[in-house]
Structure formats: structure tokens, C-alpha cells
Amino acid sequence: MDTANCTLDRPKAFTRITQTVEALRNTRESDDQQLRMGLLCQPANLSEEEERAFLALMTRNIGRALKTMHQSVVSRHEEMIEIKQQIQEHARDLDHVDKANLRQAADMASRVGEHAVEQRRKLSRLLESPYFGRIDVDAVQAHPATPVYIGVHAFADPQSQEPLIHDWRAPISSMFYDFELGEAYYDAPEGRVAREISLKRQYRIEKQQFRFMLESSLNIQDDILQEELSRAADDKLKTIVATIQRDQNAIIRNEHAQTLVIQGAAGSGKTSIALHRVAYLLYKHKDTIRSDDILIVSPNKVFAHYISQVLPELGEEMIRETTMEQLANELLDGEYKFQTFAEQVSKLLEGGDEAFAQRVRFKALADFLDLLDRYIDHVHATNLRVDGIRIGMIRLDSNWIGNQFGRRAQFSVSEQVNGVVTAIVEHMKYQHQKAVVGKERTRIRNELRKMFAETNLKTIYRNFFTWAERPDMFKQGPKGALEYADVFPLVYLKMMLEGTNPRHEIKHVVIDEMQDYTAVQYRVISTLYPSKMTILGDRNQAVNPLSSSNAESIRDVLPDAECVYMQKSYRSTVEITNVAQSIVHNPDLIPIERHGEPPRVMRFPAKAREIGFLIERARAFADSGYHSMGIICKTQKQAEALYDHLRGEVDVRLIDADSKIFSGGILIATAYLAKGLEFDEIMVPFCNENEYNTQTELRWLPFKQARWVHDAAGRLQDLRLPYSARLVRDQFDHHVVLLHSTWDADYLQRENPKFEFSSMRTRRVPPSTSALACQPEFLGERGGVSPTVPPSSTTLAGQRESAG
């Protein structure tokens, strides 16, 4: 091909493919230089066969670069070993200058080696799947267009350094997510750049193998998205770079918001979007922000482990993470015992203590924060009454003493007193040549302490409720342990009375599950970390609805917050969404068009059958080839009791407050600890009128907490559903809900004609169908509904039990 006549304004590295596929197939490494002269002076519309050849060329080049980078890593390692040996062998003969030079050389080799290791890791990831998208772009009305391949990482031609693959975060890559065919633009550092997209493709490439490609005239091809959604669960959250939607891309690339609050429906991709936003910021501002500068506040350690792999897969290092409880313990210096959030939720679920619920609700209100602020002003005005101190013939007046206290206002009372004592001792020594020791020093300390009306932080906090005329709102637990609702008010009081050093080293904070935190907690976080924030959650998924937040209430605490709303759910099938909407209608929900089997309800006559079914189902799942099953309980006590029942029968593990890892297999957990995790199948035992008999308890049904389950077709279906307001009696005592419904069967069939219901004897259930095992007194008073199960579900059906 005569490349001299090619007038395209395109990277030279794309002139790589010869005129025929046969030539590409037969090309060996020695011929690659000829390939660099070739690609696409003809129209850039490569066939699938040519695309396969181009992929082969890319993987070969990436493989070479990987080999070179590996050699660099080995060389740097050998260099460091050699330098250390020189230092050890010639330590006596080297002067300090030689030693300093060798140490500097070792440090340089270490840094270069670390960079090489990081590049090798990226190239290894890229080799498996070099790119997932392509757009052909050029200046508006200019032809032919330049192909832009987009991948998780960038890759340049080793010789010319021309970009072959663009990082998904690069400015030009934004057009892949934001535009269809036709006029488009992207925002570059020098300003907005107008372009025209003439072709758009998406690819599935796995382990260097070309699975398929799709040409798209739409905004991110639905077929790719559907294929991603239907993949099996894993023990780590996955990246979504190939399926980011336009509205999600706008959130990811939002750089101007000081605080960005993302309120999204279940299945809208909030957590993934927040993590991809972190990756984007690290890419865009790599000169000013590093992984160490970012903090993620997770609901628990298990969830933190679950999301831990997203950023490394996107080419970034793992970042700091903490939980609210860890943070509270740190800020209180480990001096106070307190109830955990999980224990608070469990106690609320166990019920029977309305006074406890009232205390939780009271401290979650925004008015509570205002009241606490007023009390802090009161303490500042009244707690310290400064007076002068006489030492022999010398009197230090109240102004001098007051100034000393003022310099130490950011410290605790004890630290303030000790600091002022030290100042007095030094003042007397240097100004009056008088030593203050022994009993005299003790007397001064006691007089200074008496100037405080109260010195104990917990007592000051307890006095707040007396001052507010609500003494009934404070109660300590066994051995003086604080209730969880009191922990962050106490932290905030300590910060305001003793001062705090803002942690400026953290430049961005990500807070997940925003609905589970109170106004006081947000005030503590914003005071401690005066940085940019990404806050995300769903007000409809509050673990504790008595103390939940939404975007608007967070903005009341953080006035500079910008709120965005994600109403599209990519998770639930149409059938499940229809059922959910018929129970609790969400007018803002926009479900993606994806179909699966409708929910089904099943019953058992006795608890023994229920336990038997759980064991049978768990055994079937173990042989199914799927990755993970979750058995989700209401409380930790319930989970522990069920674990004792099952562990001798099946290989099952219990997730508790001390758990730190989420992995495959059969897991028993509470809804709180399973929150946000992904399972192939979920069973929820003990769903009965006794367990869930109030509107608040219905909101705690665990169906929302886990991400996915498989249906018989092998697709994924969601468990995050609104909760039934109807739990009434039936002659059957124990029930199983398939896949994830706890509603009156007649009502569901009336609202959803395709809803399937069946009674059941003890039969083996196919591992491809998920179940919620339920206990007594559940569905209706009519004596049951005749089964309407299609042939494909006959293994789920059976004659009704005669005993009720």
C-alpha cells in the first residue's frame, strides 16, 4: 500500500494491517515492521476476521512489552542485590560519601523496580483483554476517520510511542460513553474538541480470545450490558468499564463538586460508579493525588474486602479503608466500650424495647445535632470559671491563667490542666527564680481542676440530656457500655470541646451506604476530613430506618453538596420489578428491559421440613457449580443457631462481626453483614408473622441486601425488593419463597397473572432455582392456592400437605 498518498490525520501506529487477512495471518514477528506501514487507508470498517487479526497483532506487541518489562524487573532486582552485597562486603573500606552514593543508587533501583512491577501488572491485565471498545473519529465532516481503541489501560507503540489503546479515563474515551454516531466532542485540557463518530464497536475479549463484537449505533450496546448482567456471582465486585452508561460517566468524570451525593435505586451501580470515579480522579490528577490520599468508609470489613479488587483491576493501588466503628474507637482513644451498629440493629430487630427504639430515633434527627451544638456553646460559656492562683507572695491573676488555658483549648481537660501547671512551674522558675515542686505543685493542679465545673467527658455528655430536659434519652448498657446511638454524639462533643486536628493528608473520602449514617456522623466526618467527598447510598435500603439519611438530609449538614439521582436499575428482571412495583410503587424507578422467571412461593408444614429443605438445598447447591449461596437471617443469634443446625450436615461458614473476608461457598449471615454482597443464590429462613409483624420489621426483611441470584435459565435475578405490608395466617406453618417473594399468593396472582405458586413436599430442588425458606403463619387465611406450576418447574411442585 502506498502510504504516502494516505492523507489521514491519525496516529502512525494505526497503519499496521496489510490489505488482506491472509497476509495478517501469516505474518511473523520479523514482518511486524511491514505491518506498521499498513492499516486502513481504505475505509476503517474492518471485518470481524480483520479485527481478529488486529487483536493478534496487539496481543503480540503487548506480550513483547510484557517480556521487556519483566526483564527490567529482574534487572532492577539483581542490581539491588549487587549494591547491597557491595555495601556489606566493603563496609570498612567505603567512606561516608561512597556509602551515601550506593544507598542512593539502591533507592533509585528500588523506585525504578517498583514502577516496572506496576507496569508489568498492567500489561499482564491488558494482555488478557487488550480493549473492549472502539470509536472511529475525526474532525467534523472530515473522512476517513481515525480508529480509537479503548481499554482498561493505555498501550503505546514501543517504537514510535504512538497510542494504540487509550485508557478508558482519557478525555477522548469519554465519547465512547457519551455519544452515538454523528457529531460528538470531548473536553481536553486545552478546551472542548469537536469530532464526528462514524463507527462504534464493542468487543468481548477474554484470555486473548476474541469472543464476539457488536457494531452499535446506540449509546452502549444493550447486548453487552445484558451479557455482563447475566454473569455468575464472584467473591469480588467487578469493574464495569465496558458498560458504563452516559449518566454514570457524567458522575465518574464530575471534578467540580466538593461533595457529590449519589442517591440511587437498588441495582443502579452506585458502588461501582464511586470506585470508578476514584480511579478516574487518580488518573486525571496523578500529580496531586495518590491512592494513599483517599479513604473509603465501608459498612463493615466483609464489604470492604468484597470491593477491594476493583481499583487494582483498574490499574490503581488499593486505598485506605475504615469503618465508622473503627473511626469512633480511634477518636475516643479506645477509652470507651460501646455497642456496635450490628448489635444496635439486632436489638431493634429482636424488639420488645420501645424505649431503646425511641432513643435511637431521637439521636438520628437533624434537630438533635442543632441541640447538641447549642449545648456545646453552653459548656464553653459555663464549664470553665478561671480564677487567679497565689504561690507564696506571688499571685498569678485570672487573665494570665485564662490565657494559658486558651492556648490549650484544643486538648482534653486533663491535658489542659497539666499544660497550665507546666507553664506555671516554668514561669515561676524563670521569672521569679522560685521552684514549684511536691505538695505545692499538687495544690496548684487541684486548684486548676476545680475551675472546671465538670472534667469527665462522659459526664458532660450525660449532663446534656438533663440540660435538654430529656434525661430519659440516655441509658448505658452493661458495664457502662454506650449505646451505638451515643457514640458519635460523644465523639463530636469531644472534638468540639477539646479541638481536633483536621486530617488534611486525606484528599478524598468515599462514604458508602450513606443511608445508615446520621447527621452527627456526617458532621464528624466533614470536620475531621475537610476534603472532597463522594457519598452514595439508597434511602430505601436503610438497615436501620429509625436513623437513616437521604440526599436532602445530608445536604442540610453539608450545604455545598451536589446531589445526583440514579433511578435506572440494571439488576432486577421485568418480572421481579413488576411484582415489586405492585407491592410498593416507586414512581421514579426505571428498570432495564431484562426478562427471567417470575417469582414463586412454596410452603412447608413444619419447622423440621424447613430445616430439611435448607440442608437439601445447600447440598444441591454444592453440586451445582455456582459460586456462592447466602442464607440470610434476621439477627446474629438466629444466624448462629442456624449455623449450629447446619454445620454438621453441609460445608457452611458463618459471617459475624469479626469476619473480614467474603468468599465462595455456603454462607450464613445477617442482612446487615450481607449488605451489598453478591450471591448466586439466597435463602432467607424464618420469615413468619412473629418475626416480621410491624411495618418497620418488614423493611428489615433481608431481600434487599444481597445482589444477585440465578434463575433456572442461568440468568441473574435480584433480591432487592420492597417489602410486603401483608403477612397473615394460613393453615400451613412453614414456607419457602422462590425466588424472592413474601407476599400473599392470591394478591400476587391478581396483580401479576404470571406469578407462580406451588405447595411442596420434601423434594429435591434444582440448584438453578433460589429459595427463601420461611417459617409459620404467613400467607393468607383461605387455606391455600392451587398450584399453577409449568412443566419446567415440576420438581418444585407437589400435592398439598393435609396437616396444617
How would you describe the overall organization of this protein?
- By secondary structure, the protein is an alpha/beta fold.
- It is 39% helix and 16% strand.
- It is built from 26 helices and 27 strands.
- Strands 1, 2, 3, 4, 5, 6 and 7 form a 7-stranded mixed sheet that branches. A 6-stranded parallel sheet has the order 10-9-13-14-8-15, with helices on both faces.
- Helix 20 links the parallel strand 13 and strand 14.
- Helix 19 runs parallel beside helix 20.
- The chain is globular, with a radius of gyration of 32 Å.
- The N terminus and C terminus are likely disordered.
How does the overall form come out from the CA principal axes? globular
Report the strand count.
27
Whole-angstrom Rg: 32 Å
Unreliable spans are 1-44, 702-804
How much β-strand is present in the residues?
Answer: 15-25%
Helix and strand layout, with pairings?
Elements: H1 21-26, H2 32-35, H3 48-89, H4 96-128, E1 133-138, E2 146-151, E3 155-156, E4 163-167, H5 174-178, E5 182-188, E6 191-206, E7 209-215, H6 222-229, H7 246-252, E8 259-264, H8 270-284, E9 294-298, H9 301-306, H10 310-313, E10 320-323, H11 324-331, H12 341-350, H13 354-364, H14 366-382, E11 389-391, E12 394-396, H15 398-407, H16 413-432, H17 438-450, H18 457-467, H19 484-498, E13 508-511, H20 519-528, E14 532-537, H21 551-557, E15 561-566, E16 568-569, H22 574-583, E17 590-591, E18 600-604, H23 607-622, E19 628-633, H24 636-646, E20 652-654, E21 665-670, E22 681-683, H25 695-698, E23 709-710, E24 716-717, E25 734-738, H26 745-751, E26 756-757, E27 772-774
Parallel strand pairs: 2-4, 8-14, 8-15, 9-10, 9-13, 13-14, 16-17, 18-26, 19-21, 19-22, 20-21
Antiparallel strand pairs: 1-2, 1-6, 3-4, 5-6, 6-7, 11-12, 18-25, 23-24, 25-27
Helix pairs in contact: 3-4, 7-8, 13-19, 14-19, 16-17, 19-20
